[in-house]
Amino acid sequence: MEGSEVKEISEGMARIKTYGNVFYNPVQQFNRDLSVIVLNAFAKEYKPESQTPWEAGTKYDDGIIILEALSATGLRSIRYAKEVKGVKEIVANDISVKAVDDIKRNISANAVEDLVTASHDDATMLMYMCRKERRFDAIDLDPYGSPSIFLDSAVQTVKEGGLLLVTSTDMAVLAGNSPETCHSKYGAISLRTKACHEMALRILLQCIESHANRYGRYIVPLLSLSADFYIRVFVRVFTSAKICKQTLSKLSTVYHCTGCGSFVLEPLGVIKFNEKNQQIKYGLPTRSLGGSCQHCDHPHHVGGPIWNAPLHSPQFVEKLLAEVPQHLGTFKRIEGVLNVIKEELPDSPLYYTLEQLSGTLHVETPSMIMIRSAILNGGYKVSYTHMNKTSIKTNAPAKFIWDVMRIWQSKHPISKKRSVKSTPATTILGKSTDFEVSFEYNAEANPESKKLGLLRFPQNPLPNWGPGTRATAM
Q: Where do the coiled-coil regions begin and end (predicted)?
């Protein structure tokens, strides 16, 4: 330790020191705060039979066992020990000798030796060794970069109904900059779309589901979010060969127009129910999209497969909102984000953005209230997503959305200089309008989270924020 720079860190109820270049990123306090809340809600749901009123910081023989596979400083594990109720044991593992030395010192300094055990091992090998005799109720994977190499062992090592907490900071790959790399890491092709952050979440979920299916297991997402420079998913893992057969219907290929940005999802499989014999049959879709976009005649890019089922459990999100401790450093942000997530449409994957629609047609940008009112007045649903403050998530068909924009353009004509032949704008504006569109104010267009003045779309957390520099301490 001599000559090493000592950093003192205070977060939540933990007080730690790091010696040397062991990884710590203060921007991810939101990630850690939220994980504490999720684990508290999960433990209560996972162990409902417990007769003891649980307290944080106390060891319970009937409590949950947590593995933090990539612990670095031990901060997260120490926070779990001090802030999560109903814990039996926490294993804080890291492959770095210096990191494990830090972990041991910090465990002792925080007096959580009865709850937290330091482990020096390769994360993947540790999970493989534990998958038979010593499985975990919750496994936290928070790597620098992609979590893909840890998923095969994690889905085997988590207990029945247990929780995986998975982070990816691999956003350049997941958001469409390197589709070939995305396919090699996650088994899916990413696309550069305005909805790239949601597509990243759905690619990660399908990747976890794919790994789980190999062992007759499947996932149920509790919460999935995009924040700052990373994505984070919280999923429970169950075992059922029968339900694994439904996976094809939970995955879709994405057809994304290179001109106007419209998108269509094509499920990989369909489920058919026979009412006569009460049996379920699994089949393949027969729909064909043709070669070009029906709205602007431009070709499609094809991506995926992505997870097309819900990203969140509404019931679980309600539980989280009921239990968010106000003392947390990122309380206001958590409260705002969870409320927006609660309002998100669960069955409408991906989204448009306001600037995408107006920019495609080169027209004056309408207000969000006007666009949302038009969609609601048309009999469709609409919501924001927590990933983008100008997002339009809706079950309305793309034809209706472009009809809305055509009517808007007729009231706010574009100049001849901006009207160029053979562009998406001229093609879309040259088509007929089939739907009746009303921009009359609809009270439901103003969501409750906005009325309450919640911190829904926070600004960048720190100057020069980002994933930081990979740890070099070994």
A: none
